[in-house]
Design brief:
With 69 residues, this protein is mainly alpha-helical. The protein has two helices and no strands. Helices cover 72% and strands 0% of the residues.
């Protein structure tokens, strides 16, 4: 024997204003997350970068020194 249940769901009518508001709120959240990520990348400071810069500077100084002799 099968028993059928009918579930009544209330339908919510969403207006255009509500849709636009939700859209722009989500859009601003995405922009905020991206700006936080960009700031986090800028704050990243690696010692490896310093060593690479030192090595490059040292190489250029040695080349200039060798050309002078």
């Amino acid at each position: 024997m099968f028993v059928l249940f009918t579930i009544r769901s209330s339908k919510k009518v969403i207006g255009l204003d509500d849709l636009l508001t939700d859209h722009y709120q989500e859009k601003s959240k995405v922009i905020e997350r991206e700006s936080k990520r960009a700031k986090a990348k800028k704050k990243y400071d690696s010692d490896e970068d310093d060593f690479d810069k030192e090595a490059l500077l040292s190489k250029q100084i040695n080349e200039c020194h060798n050309q002078a002799w």
